[in-house]
Every structure is written in structure tokens, then in C-alpha cells.
Amino acid sequence: MKTNLIAVLASGLLYPPLAGAADNAATRSPDQISVFKAPLVCPAAPQIGCGSASKPILLDLEKQTGVAEAWLNRAGTIIAVVWKPDATAEARSHIAGELKEDRATEIEGASRDEAVKDFLSGKSWYHAADVDRLSEEEADIIAARLVRWVQAKTGLPKNKAEGMQRAFSDLLRKDLTGQSARLGQKPRKLTDVARDYLDPDQIKILKEAIKDEEALESGEKPVPKEG
């Protein structure tokens, strides 16, 4: 996932998925479902899946012949495809081939049965309309990490830290969910938002934090363990 941290640039808040995965579980049979191992873990928040990377994949899947629904698990490691009753073997094979191009490989055997069982439980699975919640959670995690960095280096007062974190979260949420783009809003920089809370020397520290965050996102550095 490629966020625009240069341009725009909680933790651990849980955003439960909307009801849906379990709603129709009683009417589904396991043979209506295929599961695929997917590389959709969020680089900046590896405990969750990446909403902005998974959303176009899920939306595209649901446009395909034979596909009724497409879902992502919370961890970003499995895509579940629910087939229409009239889906042909050819259509299924075609979708599996397309997903393979996205580095998603079909899960088979006992692992497949376990993943399908988890999907049918309805817990922690996200439909295309729901994955923005993962993006919002990612935004909160990034905002909190940036603020902790600045606090550690500058002794930023708690009230300013809390206000800046809320402002960062709001900005990043709009960016990661595409809300700013949909509204035609020009992306704002986190450094611009931060000027309401930081002096020029503290802004320099924030810029260091943003560079570090970009390194985490690109995989150049491992994400630090929290707490």
C-alpha cells in the first residue's frame, strides 16, 4: 500500500467490521466459498490488513462473472470469495488466475477448511464497503506513533499532543480512505496542521518522524513493537 505520507503527512483502537459476513452464513455452503492467501497486510500497521490496497481488489472481484461477494480478513492475509450458485468452473478458474497475478494463491486442504470455517463465523471479516475502517485504524496508529516520537524528543505537553493526534488522525483518515480525493480537496501536509501545536524547532523533529514513518511504510525499517 502506498499512502501519500509526503503530501499529507490511538492507537490500537478497534473498529469492528460491519455486520454481514455472518448474516448469510446459514444460507451458504462451504463449496460456495474459495479462500486465497493474500499479501495485504498493512506495512505501517502489520497487525491489520490494508484497507486502501484491498478495497479496489474486492470491488473488482465483485464485478466479475460468477462472484457474489468478496471479503478480507482483519489480518489482511486471506481473501474469501463467495460464488454465485451458477458460477462455472471456468469462471472460478479465471478468477483464481487473476488473483494469482495479484500474488494471492488459492488455499486448499485442511487450511482451506479452517479458513472457510472462520469466514462463516462472521468474525473479523471485511466487505469492500467496510475496509475503510481498517484505513481509519491505520490512520490512528500512524498519528499516535508520530506524536509519540515528537513527545519523546521535545516534551510536548499532553494537551497539545492530544489535540495534534486528533488532527493528524482526521487528516490521515481522509487521505487513506480517499475522502479528500472524492471531495476534490487539495491534500494538506501534516506539517501544516502541526503548526497550530508546534514551534519551528519542534516542526523539524516532526519532519524527522515523518521520514521515519515513510521508511516503515516502504519496508526499509521494521515497525517498532508498541508498549
Order the strands across the largest sheet as they lie in space. 6-1-5-4-7
The string of secondary-structure elements, in order, is: EEEHEEHEHEHHHHH
CATH architectural type of the largest domain:
2-Layer Sandwich
The share of residues in extended strands comes to: 5-15%
Low-confidence stretches: 1-20
Main structural class: alpha+beta
Mean pLDDT equals: 86
User: So how many helices?
Assistant: 8
Distance between the termini: 25 Å
Radius of gyration: 20 Å
Which of globular, elongated, flat, extended, rod-shaped describes the shape?
elongated
**The top level CATH class name of the largest domain:** Alpha Beta
Descriptive account of the structure:
The chain has helices at 51-61, 89-101, 109-121, 132-154, 158-176, 179-182, 190-194, 200-218; strands spanning 33-37, 41-42, 45-49, 67-73, 78-83, 105-106, 125-127. It has 227 residues and is of the alpha+beta class. The strands form two sheets. It has a five-stranded antiparallel β-sheet with strand order 6-1-5-4-7, sandwiched between helices. A two-stranded antiparallel ribbon has the order 2-3. The chain is elongated. The model is unreliable at 1-20 (pLDDT under 50). Helix 4 runs antiparallel to helix 5 (158-176). It contains eight helices and seven strands. The longest helix is centred in the middle third of the chain and has 23 residues, at 132-154.
